[in-house]
Design brief:
Layout: H1 3-7, E1 20-21, E2 28-29, H2 30-44, H3 47-56, H4 85-94, E3 99-100, H5 102-107, H6 110-114, H7 118-122, E4 126-127, E5 131-133, E6 141-142, H8 145-158, E7 165-169, H9 175-188, H10 202-212, H11 221-226, E8 229-233, H12 237-240, H13 242-253, E9 257-261, H14 267-270, E10 271-273, H15 278-282, E11 286-287, E12 291-293, H16 300-317, H17 325-331, E13 332-333, H18 335-343, H19 347-354, H20 358-369, E14 374-378, H21 380-383, H22 388-401, E15 411-414, H23 421-426, H24 435-445, H25 457-465, E16 471-475, H26 479-482, H27 486-494, E17 498-503, E18 516-521, E19 530-531, E20 534-535, E21 538-541, E22 546-550, H28 564-576, H29 583-588, H30 590-600, H31 607-611, E23 617-618, E24 635-636, E25 652-657, E26 662-663, E27 666-667, E28 677-678, E29 683-686, H32 688-694, E30 701-708, E31 711-722, E32 729-733, E33 758-764
Parallel strand pairs: 2-10, 3-4, 7-16, 8-9, 8-14, 9-12, 13-24, 14-15, 16-17, 17-18, 25-32, 29-31
Antiparallel strand pairs: 1-28, 5-6, 5-18, 10-11, 19-20, 21-22, 22-23, 25-33, 26-27, 29-32, 30-31, 30-33
Helix pairs in contact: 2-4, 8-28, 9-28, 10-22, 16-19, 16-20, 16-22, 25-27
The chain binds ligand MGD (2 copies) and molybdenum atom.
Length: about 775
Amino acid sequence: MSESNKKIKVQPPEEFTGLKFTGPKNTSVGKAAIASAMGQMTKYMKPGNAIKLSLKMNQKGGFDCPGCAWPDPDDDRSSLGEYCENGIKAIAEEAQKKALTSEFFAKYSVQEISELSDFEMGKTGRLTEPMFLEEGATNYKPISWTEAFQLIAKELNKLPSPDEALFYTSGRTSNEAAYLYQLFVRAYGTNNLPDCSNMCHESSGVALSETVGIGKGSVTLQDIHQAEVLIIMGQNPGTNHPRMLSAVEKCKVNGGKVITVNPLPEAGLMRYTDPQSPKRMLTNGIQITDLFLPIKINGDVAFLKALMYELHQMDIAQGGDLIDYDFIEQHTNGYEEFIWSIKQIDYMACLRQCGLEAKQIRDAAKMIARKQKIIVCWAMGLTQHENGVDNIKEVVNLLLMKGAIGKPGAGTCPVRGHSNVQGDRTMGIWEAPKKDFLDKLKEVHGIKPPRKHGLAVVPAIKAMHEGKAKVFFAMGGNFLSATPDTEYTAEALQNCDLTVHVSTKLNRSHVVHGKQALILPCLGRTDKDLQDGKEQFVSCENSMGVVQSSQGVINPPSKHLLSEVRIVAELAKATLGNSTIDWESYASNYDHIREAIEQVIPGFDQYNERVRKPGGFYLPNGARDGKFNTASGKAEFTVVKLPKHELAQDEFVMMTIRSHDQFNTTIYGLNDRYRGVYNERRVVLMNESDMAAKGFKEGDVVNLSSYYKGVERSANRFIVLPYPIPRTNVATYFPEANSLVPIDSFAKKSMTPASKMVRIKIHKAG
Ligand SMILES: Nc1nc2c(c(=O)[nH]1)N[C@H]1C(S)=C(S)[C@@H](COP(=O)(O)OP(=O)(O)OC[C@H]3O[C@@H](n4cnc5c(=O)[nH]c(N)nc54)[C@H](O)[C@@H]3O)O[C@H]1N2
Ligand SMILES: Nc1nc2c(c(=O)[nH]1)N[C@H]1C(S)=C(S)[C@@H](COP(=O)(O)OP(=O)(O)OC[C@H]3O[C@@H](n4cnc5c(=O)[nH]c(N)nc54)[C@H](O)[C@@H]3O)O[C@H]1N2
Ligand SMILES: [Mo]
């Protein structure tokens, strides 16, 4: 490692920012949310842009919110703007009035920039011109686009094998840019396309593909409205998918019940006040959760097993009409073996592991016993575990037992993260592409796509660490801070010959760099995109498989910005020289990319025509229609093992979660309003009895350390806060605690880092 690299701060600074703690709230949204959103808009945006954007966000013919992937209503969109507090924060962050110019980089060295907190980095403004960090230099300096592309091309073409290059994607990239990007990467010769999905819903994709034949959820927004019971597991929609709450509210108004399974009583799941409904504002909102189950971290398999055991017992006692035997007979495989394993469970061991009482399990069983319209919604609380794939398979088992899939008001609902993470995967951003897809690329584009599977995020980090990958290219995202084991990942990136980031905003991955580094500034979702003098639009797929157009509405912050599509095309031209692909034609008219997508990817017939219709179109979804595209043609029951939970003396299980004021590694502000934590992110939420046993008081400063396979990792200076969380469980924020997540602790099969279950010890700081 060079001398200059040593001093670079690879993690946010350990300084405190002035904590105020009031304890958790029991209601969400309402007036405080409107005030918070408006505050962000007026502080960071030009007034004209703020109005333009809030009227066009998630409207038919407008742009797709760059925040989460929750779908928009097919009809009946609110005239006030289909927005939420955190959507407004996302656009306020992207459409900042402040511009970050080359003078900033001339004034501050890379090392000095690394001293900034993530919050401060984000507030430096939108990136405005391409910047280059020469080998051994202390400061980034401007570079022309042409030189930047030539430099990347030279480094890529120098590699002994294309497999020594890695091409990461974060989930904001549009369908058009993602398609062209994977086409370039495969024409260049590798399937090394790690993406944020590897750290997110990969466990869902793997489990759902194996069991119901499609790696996506099966429900629509209408289904949520019609469900009789919604089970919301491992998800905090009040913060991360606020618009989901209006759908849940509709479900409740229609008579639906909600069971919430979460170690924390998240405010958004308790009460909700629709900010656009004067009646709800006056009546203090609606109760969301009917049955709250404060589960221990990773107690979900144990809980589901106990629940299915109860259901089976009740079915026997009540004459056998609670379990849907007709559905099981006609549409599934493996029931006998599965139910035998459920009959064998050690019920008491399950109760101990999930931390719930038998009565709570029975109450849940009673709530679903006579219902068929059941939907399970889930997010990172289920996927980011070593047994993440099993968690979701167990969810599927429950739904299959009840015949609750492939019919209205029932099914699977993995709630996606980034606004186009699902679309990127549909477009082929995947390290393990299917043969049919590659065959089609060959047929349509005349390339010879590589057949060997590439590297997902965790193996990609290892390859860089071991010197087996030398060029790292990122289409968006903040790889260093989003990935586990921050120190290890930093060493990996610093091992590269070249790191390149296509970005809208400055982040820590720009200052923890390879020998040479480039920052390529691009247009964001909200910016107008002109190619050949004509305005272009892009498209995205939301969490429920609807493809819709998205068109930016404001002038970009600088005339030097290129669109992601244009960047890929220019890079391809520079790298591939004579290519069978007409990159220029694609970049100058995005309709041409959509024509190619239509030829290669099933479900996109008449793409250009249908995407221009208000509201877009649904992609085909077998599971939704009750058709299971598995090897056997039936949905598969699976027998899942109860995980082993052995905590050593003095050990705790830590989950790393999002605060209310962040979008992944982008820190909008320092408050976590619903949890009553203000002006501080370096906190650890702990059960009061655990605090007493350790002799801790509120406000004590502690250091955290994790031990995994003989390696100790540490993160220092966190403030202890008493919180209603099960015993031996604690919570910290991502990314401050990422250095504790071991690189080797990931889900079997999906390789998703286990960032919701890190075994740690807690010591008072000296
Ligand atoms: N405003 C905003 N919106 C976002 C994001 C953001 O950062 N900010 N991120 C986007 C992205 S990429 C994603 S993936 C989603 C993330 O959305 P979420 O998954 O809701 O985000 P997390 O904060 O990781 O919350 C996980 C929840 O799971 C619970 N949990 C943790 N461990 C367990 C467990 O073992 N069992 C159970 N049952 N529950 C558990 C936690 O208490 C927490 O409530 O949100 C997307 N939307
Ligand atoms: N410990 C822990 N780690 C986690 C998680 C966790 O729960 N706990 N969650 C994981 C999950 S679910 C995810 S999805 C990942 C997220 O990982 P990433 O997607 O890599 O991270 P983000 O923070 O979303 O990326 C933010 C950066 O994207 C860039 N950006 C924003 N908009 C655009 C755009 O339109 N185009 C381009 N090119 N760039 C843009 C900006 O420069 C910004 O700094 O993190 C994972 N890491
Ligand atoms: Mo995510």
